[in-house]
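Researcher: Next entry: MYO10 isoform 11 (Pongo abelii).
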Amino acid sequence: MDNFFTEGTRVWLRENGQHFPSTVNSCAEGIVVFRTDYGQVFTYKQSTITHQKVTAMHPTNEEGVDDMASLTELHGGSIMYNLFQRYKRNQIYTYIGSILASVNPYQPIAGLYEPATMEQYSRRHLGELPPHIFAIANECYRCLWKRHDNQCILISGESGAGKTESTKLILKFLSVISQQSLELSLKEKTSCVERAILESSPIMEAFGNAKTVYNNNSSRFGKFVQLNICQKGNIQGGRIVDYLLEKNRVVRQNPGERNYHIFYALLAGLEHEEREEFYLSTPENYHYLNQSGCVEDKTISDQESFREVITAMDVMQFSKEEVREVSRLLAGILHLGNIEFITAGGAQVSFKTALGRSAELLGLDPTQLTDALTQRSMFLRGEEILTPLNVQQAVDSRDSLAMALYACCFEWVIKKINSRIKGNEDFKSIGILDIFGFENFEVNHFEQFNINYANEKLQEYFNKHIFSLEQLEYSREGLVWEDIDWIDNGECLDLIEKKLGLLALINEESHFPQATDSTLLEKLHSQHANNHFYVKPRVAVNNFGVKHYAGEVQYDVRGILEKNRDTFRDDLLNLLRESR
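Model: Predicted structure:
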């Protein structure tokens, strides 16, 4: 232990269950002072320091390694320090065996994604060059032919980690390498399929991404991109499957966040004539855009984004009339959000201007739109009964209509993209899963619950394939190995998805007309209060908590039943069916 007390010695210091890369700052009169590489200072009596508290740092940890499997000391501290050391040298990619860890640099790195870099990685095997996302994409492409099996790349990480950008880089690399096949004819090499797949990204980002407090370009939906590769090695077609669009964002956002990019791009990019025709002005004038207090993001040029979307739609063969109708629909949704109500023997529209503009743009009759928003229609024994709505119910009807319109628009856009890139699904394929990252906001709703549940399942998949199946293979081969202690999130998933789990109780309550969010919360507390992964708050009256693999998250129960039911009133549906 004596060398641990020499000034300048590099050590690992264990503090609060974590290992910190540290330097012995001083040692005098039985007192040792350690300074971590992250700026903290810890002081101990020399007599109290043990091997559990302080261990020597191997030179490989000091220098950093391409593959974390090569680290001499393997613990959380050494992994974080290796990533930190490489990050400081703009080496944002690091292998963990066959897994690639990526650290978001939040700035461009010269030469990292240039065509020459793509060319270099396309001609070398995995491990022959420094870690890179192109190396993973290239290995996936090679394995497609080597193993004759479909391949899949899973991209996981917290919100803002760079998953969407990684997806685009993989698509770009595979697009380039597929055109390098020696067997391709000139006609095949000039095919537009690859470009069309790449150009789908700006469209999907505009309609499916938004600024959150964590990420200025956060995916608010999950997607699976499937690329069909023909026998000659080029991308012959593809398909996009979308999951869980966050419809609620259309009508409300948390403070400091924005609605979907496309709304701001529309207002910034439309020509003057169309802005006048659609009665459009600035984002500050629309309830669906101004309520969060954030209508502008200085890191995004909304006008440039609009140009990119229009260019991409042209490549994807959207007709001018289709683009115009999408713009008209989006404008109609914005005006719909500006409809306000007052109480006058039930809810009444206070100002007719927003209603008239919305009805015109959506092809609806103003009177019928007013009736649908302010009263509920039902038939009893063949007779129609009209029930007036209060102001809050009218607002809910307005918002429900806006969410349904946007969701249908988003679904149509995805279908249009798929019709453009559709290929032969009998060919081998490479799949890329880009799912929303783990989220923990100040207030978390049903959307965050579903997002984090999806991430929990993805983590289980990683655990199963990286730990369980590997160790099972070791046992089968009779290898001597040390059991790896890893965090099994199976019990957390049981809490969510098993019989009488959180999802089952939410679905059960959703079928009872008299059930409320409060009765749901009572059932959750009653059933799971003693579960280690369930948290019953001592103070918050509307919350329940779940201890996820990435940390504890408190969820606000308010609105869960309504969102889970996801019902759409028949009279609103009939109204849309009669639109011109």
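Model: Note for the record: The CA atoms of residues 301 and 346 lie 43 Å apart.
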